[in-house]
Design goal:
1228 residues, mainly beta, five-stranded mixed sheet, disulfide bond, Ig-like_fold, membrane, transmembrane helix
Length: 1228
């Protein structure tokens, strides 16, 4: 049977045995009489520390309570007689106190505990008590070990024996551990093996160290002395061989451990196997392992210490066999076979169990054990061999079975079964109790058992009774577990429910019966919905710095609370600020270390469900490493690098940059890029540059950091291989030409002392090339002819030689002023704003340079309207035309004007002489808008319009056209939006007045001047709004609708495309006829129903109050005048009195003589001050002659006249000046 199948079968068998033992074990309640049972004991091999007290455990139960006793080394041991030993109360555990003056080894030995009561004795295992030891390593003087170079050597350790065995390690003279390698090995027994000796082995000492239980001991160090012995047998030399320099003879491998060609080893089943092979030879041999029959168990096998150690963690029977160790070098090979046998300590096949019987019952105890070799079985009763106790006719021993027939009350006892072989033993206690008892339930009552659907569960009903009761299970009054199905009832009272279903929920009753009575118990079973993950996490690829999100949604039984945990690579995640958990796991700012397998686990108290997904973090690649330069040439070098980790995003490209330390040190420039699958490329280089390189790796995420710079590489120099760029010859003066060019780049210099050779000569001449060498980027040629073509070329040169010549470039010397003017300048065609100009060109040689343009200078001399003054600003326009009959068009001219012009020819630097001046006229055009256009509302029902003539009539005015249209109509007017009305006026009319039907009707006026050509641009104005009109709001009208929803409306056009944006001028629809769709703007007046203010109640009330107040004031005034009064005149002494006025002695006037005669020359104002009438100027009152009139500007235009003449001319103006409120102030 293969190893894996055997292990599965053994696991199933072990599970079945454990389940069977658990189901059929008999538990007697402690309140019933019963023999003793051992419940706790120390391990068989018990090693204690001498610095502490030793504790040997032994615990037991029984009724009556057991009494404990001990045997040491097979003899009775009385703890009470030794003051250092005590036994705990109600226990058999021994405490042995180690203290000063006591040798702990005196208490070493084999201990066995006996627990006894009235019904028998139970015994423990034989406990071997040993005290751990740290022996002293005896001091010894070790002579230096002399050995020939190349021979093997073994340095023995031989530590003193101890319990437990020591751990061995070797150290050198520097107190550092010896590092094992292919040549140097520490064996399983602790010895140090040298496969061969070298001179280097003499540089230190070697000491063996043993770590005991309490201390570390060191053996005296070894010193190695190497004898340098040369041999003639040298088969092969290699410069890398450790021994070649000394000419050490090579040898065939031989085994230092184990010796010979074959050996054997016994290992116990389940224990580890360690095999070691150490071989000598030069060169040092290589160790390999194989198995004679079958393959090595790779799953459990590990090769360690340079393959010299083979380790199998747990041995099984199929691991037995012949293991072959082979040592080989180039001189040969040798093998050693290790036969491995697997044996086993005894293990239970059928362990005896307690029996509870009644009188006259029969029973048997079975004790079966396996092992290699086969164990022997020995029966004991109450700790004594069955053969040594008085015989019992009702007891019979038949090998591994003990049979009891017709037992009686006195047959209660404890039987022991001992199964042993050479590797160990097993001891089991099993009692036989003779008693009668009614059934009783031993477990808790009314248990609640929860199970997941389709899972297996057990309902436990432990019971006891003698004779053994019959137990049955009931659910809903029906017996379960007898007919098979998914129920199974065990004799110990357990009911197994296989594949629980929802209809298995309910209450189960177990009933135990024997002849002495009945007992029952209940258990409730609840079947829960299993937990499952409905949306498991999915594999993610996230860019570093982004947020990764794993979903994990589960469905579970609603009565069971759940907990959700996340693990990364098997380790529980501690959620911090970067981790958020809800129905998902969110990882913010993803890092590289976040990569791994994420497992979501949803747990309830009964089950759990898990799902996993992997997070892959995408990042920029790691920088390339290990840059290496090779294969150098004059113009190239190979660069090789080791690619860095691409971080899960393939490298698409590598970018190589360079830096040179002469022209721009420290500045890195791009050299070339290469596909991402290359790591070795040839770089193109330029001469005479000290290069240093670095490499970037580029993937879809971004650029890596740059690699570490490579070593520098200096290319050799060479002549330039590039030509200067943008070579040109430019005339700077009429007898000079400047040759210019762009320099070579730094990487094109190719050597030191770069300079330029400039070549030139006249074109179409046979003269020799002239040249000059310069470091500059230009050269000036003097004494040239005016505007003469030259052939030019430039060549770069350095200390290594000449570079290639450039192509020949044509340049020109400087230009001079043209010497001729265009002739025959004329105008062939004109209209109101344009004129076509013709001329005869000048000869090309008179231009004295390169023709740039023919330029016309023109200006408006006057208007054809004699009275109109104009600006004579000069303008120009160039015509870059060639040909025998050139022409051009002047635009932007003012209509009906007189113009003058002349023309010059221009080259790149100068303009030539002007041609003769030519006059021409533009034709009549349409006028400009009127200079101003005003609309005034001098009365509420009249509009007054006035305007001025256009600033530019552009011809003879024939009149004006006025158009107007109603654009705002009150709702009280049952009319429609009016059509346009047009009025024509003669040119000398500049005003117009019209009646307005009501104050709320609003008009849009458009006024334009006319000439014979047509109507000019119109000026548009709106009539002013009534002052009480409110803010506008909007509603929409379509074409043809005439009624608004509010008080008044203004029409606004929408664009023809249907766009809802309103036109900038909301009233042009009335003027231009835009009436497709109209937006109406309506205004709220100060009253909703547009009722006249005179009809409002509040206004009538205020007017009545004012009228009543005036009546009262008039009555008071009348009464005051009837009574008369005296007013002081001292304050009015500058006012002359009438000759007929009478004056009292006190200087006051008496009104009784002049009833109803007002004060002359004054009017009392509301503030009580005297206000002079418009014609009552003081000069008029006291002057002589004249009207006393003033012009509109306030200038005096008349002679002074007397008061009487003024009264006659002005009639009753004085009486109108009397204020109705004057009497109030008279009363005051």
């Amino acid at each position: 049977m293969p190893s894996s199948c055997w292990m599965v079968a053994m696991a199933k068998l072990l599970l079945l045995l454990l389940l069977s033992r658990g189901l059929y074990a008999i538990e007697i309640p402690l309140d019933l009489k019963q023999p003793p049972t051992i419940t706790k004991q120390s391990v068989k091999d018990h090693i204690v520390d001498p610095r502490d007290s030793a504790v040997v455990e032994c615990e037991a139960k029984g009724n009556p309570m057991p009494v404990f006793s001990w045997r040491r080394n097979g003899k009775f041991f009385n703890p009470g007689r030794d003051p250092r030993v005590s036994m705990r109360r109600r226990s058999g555990t021994l405490d042995i106190a180690f203290y000063s003056g006591l040798d702990p080894e005196d208490y070493e030995g084999e201990y066995q505990c006996f627990a006894t009561n009235d019904f028998g004795s139970a015994v423990s295992n034989k406990i071997l008590l040993r005290v751990s030891k740290s022996p002293v390593w005896p001091k010894e003087f070790l002579e230096p070990v002399a050995v020939n170079q190349g021979l093997p050597l073994v340095l023995p350790c031989d530590p003193p024996p101890s319990v437990p065995p020591p751990h061995i390690f070797w150290m050198n003279s520097s107190m550092m551990p010896i590092v094992e390698d292919r040549r140097l090995t520490v064996g399983l027994n602790g010895d140090l093996y040298f496969s061969s000796i070298t001179v280097n082995d003499t540089r230190t000492t070697y000491s063996c160290n043993a770590r005991f239980a309490q201390t570390i001991q060191q053996k005296s160090p070894y010193t190695i002395k190497v004898n340098l012995k040369l041999t003639q047998q040298v088969s092969y030399l290699n410069h890398s061989d450790l021994y070649s320099a000394r000419l050490v003879a090579e040898s065939v491998p031989s085994f230092l451990f184990p010796k010979g060609t074959a050996s054997s080893k016994v290992v116990l089943r389940g224990k580890p196997l360690i095999l070691m092979c150490i071989a000598a030879g030069v060169p040092t041999p290589t160790i390999t392992w194989s198995k004679k029959v079958g393959d090595l168990p790779r799953r459990k096998l590990r090769l360690e210490n340079f393959n010299k150690t083979l380790r199998i963690t747990s041995m099984s029977d199929d691991n037995a066999g012949d293991y072959i160790c082979t040592a080989s070098n180039r001189m040969g090979a040798t093998s050693h076979t290790i036969t491995v046998r697997v044996q086993a300590t005894p293990y239970w096949a059928n362990k005896p169990e307690n029996l509870v019987l009644t009188s006259e019952d029969n029973g048997k105890l079975i004790c079966r054990a396996n092992g290699i070799p086969k164990p022997t079985i020995q029966w004991l009763v109450n700790g004594e061999p069955v053969d040594s106790v008085p015989p019992n006719p009702r007891r019979q021993v038949a090998g591994d079975t003990l049979i009891l027939r017709s037992v009686q009350i006195g047959d209660s006892a404890v039987y022991q079964c001992n199964a042993s072989n050479e590797h160990g033993y097993l001891l089991a206690n099993a009692f036989i109790s003779i008693q009668e008892a009614a059934p009783r339930m031993l477990g808790p009552r009314n248990q609640l058992v929860k199970v997941m659907e389709n899972n297996r569960t057990f309902l436990y009903c432990p019971f006891f009774g003698s004779p053994l009761p019959e137990l049955r299970w009931f659910k809903d009054g029906q017996i379960v577990g007898r007919d098979g199905g998914h129920y199974k009832a065990y004799t110990n009272g357990t009911l197994e429910v296989r594949h629980a279903r929802l209809d298995d929920q309910g209450t189960y009753t177990c009933v135990a019966n024997n002849r002495l009575g009945k007992a029952e118990n209940q258990a409730r079973l609840e079947v829960k919905e299993p937990t499952r993950i409905t949306r498991p996490p999915e594999h993610l690829r996230a860019i570093r710095g982004s947020t990764a999100r794993f979903e994990c949604r589960a469905k579970h039984d609603p009565t069971l609370p759940i907990t959700v945990t996340w693990k990364r690579n098997g380790r529980l995640l501690v959620l911090g600020w970067r981790w958020k958990e809800d129905d998902f796991l969110a990882i913010s700012s993803v890092r590289r270390e976040d990569e791994g397998n994420y497992t979501c686990t949803v747990r309830t108290e009964l089950d759990r469900a898990s799902a996993s997904a992997r997070l892959v973090v995408l990042d920029r690649p790691d920088p390339p490493t290990d840059l290496e330069l090779s294969d150098p040439t004059e113009r190239s070098i190979r660069i090789t690098w080791t690619p860095g980790n691409d971080n899960h995003s393939p490298t698409k490209e590598y970018l190589v940059q360079y830096e040179e330390d002469y022209w721009e040190p420290g500045r890195w420039k791009n050299l070339s890029s290469y596909p991402g699958n290359l790591n070795s490329v040839i770089l193109p280089l330029s001469p005479f540059i000290n290069y240093q390189f670095r490499v970037y790796a580029i993937n879809a995420i971004g650029w890596s950091k740059p690699s570490r710079p490579s070593q520098r590489y200096q290319t050799s120099g060479a002549a330039p291989d590039a030509v200067p760029g943008n070579i040109r010859g430019v005339g700077t003066w009429k007898t000079r030409m400047e040759i210019r060019w762009e320099p070579l780049e730094d990487t094109q210099r190719n050597g030191p002392h770069l300079r330029y050779i400039v070549w030139w000569r006249r074109r179409d001449s046979r003269e020799e090339w002239k040249n000059i060498t310069t470091y500059w980027l230009r050269h000036i040629i003097y004494d040239t002819d005016t505007f003469t073509p030259y052939e030019i070329k430039v060549q770069a040169v350095n200390d290594f030689g000449l570079g290639p010549e450039s192509n020949v470039v044509i340049g020109y010397s400087g230009e001079d002023r043209p010497i001729a003017a265009p002739t025959n300048l004329r105008v062939s065609k004109t209209d109101s704003t344009k004129a076509t100009v013709h001329w005869t060109p000048v000869p090309s040689k008179t231009i004295m340079g390169l023709l740039k343009e023919y330029k016309v200078y023109y200006w408006r001399e006057s208007s054809q309207l004699k009275w109109l003054s104009v600006s004579r600003e000069k303008k120009s326009k160039g015509f870059n035309v060639t040909g025998p009959q050139p022409w051009g068009v002047l635009t932007g001219l003012v209509p009906y004007s007189n113009y003058k012009m002349h023309m010059v020819v221009a080259n790149s630097r100068y303009e030539g002489p002007a041609s003769s001046t030519v006059e021409f006229q533009t034709k009549e055009g349409v006028p400009a808008p009127p200079r101003f256009f005003r609309i005034q509302q001098r009365h509420m029902d009249t509009l007054y319009l006035d305007w001025d003539r256009p600033a530019e009539p552009n011809g003879i005015l024939t009149g004006y056209t006025l158009k107007y249209q109603v654009v705002l109509v009150p709702l009280t007017v049952n009319g429609t939006r009016g059509g346009r009305t047009q009025l024509d006026f003669p040119p000398n009319t500049t005003y117009y007045s019209m009646n307005r039907p009501d104050r709320y009707t609003r008009y849009r006026f458009s006024l334009a001047a006319r000439t014979q050509v047509g109507v000019g641009e119109a000026a548009v104005e709106d009539s002013p709004l009534f002052t009480n009109e409110g803010e506008p709001t909007q509603t929409w009208w379509s074409n043809g609708l005439t009624k608004c929803e509010r008080t008044s409306c203004v029409c606004t056009r929408l664009d023809r495309s249907g766009d809802t944006n309103l036109h900038k001028d909301p009233y042009k629809s009335a003027v231009k006829g835009w009436s497709e769709v109209i937006a109406m703007t309506y205004f709220d007046s100060y009253t909703r129903e547009q009722v006249d203010i005179a009809t409002q109640g509040w206004f009538i009330g205020v007017m009545c109050a004012i009228a009543l107040l005036v009546v009262i004031l008039l009555i008071v005034c009348f009464i005051k005048k009837s009574r008369g009064g005296k007013y002081p005149v001292r304050d009015k002494k500058d006012l002359p009195l009438d000759p007929v006025d009478q004056k009292d002695q006190d200087g006051s006037f008496d009104y009784r003589d002049e009833d109803n005669k007002p004060l002359q020359g004054s009017q009392m104002s509301l503030d009580g001050m005297v206000k002079m009438q418009e014609s009552d100027d003081s000069l008029v009152d006291y002057g002589e002659g004249g009207d006393g009139q003033f012009n509109e500007d306030g200038s005096f235009i008349g002679q002074y006249a007397g008061r009487k003449d003024r009264d006659e001319n002005e009639g009753n103006l004085g009486s109108e000046a009397t204020s109705p409120v004057s009497p109030l102030y008279s009363l005051a």
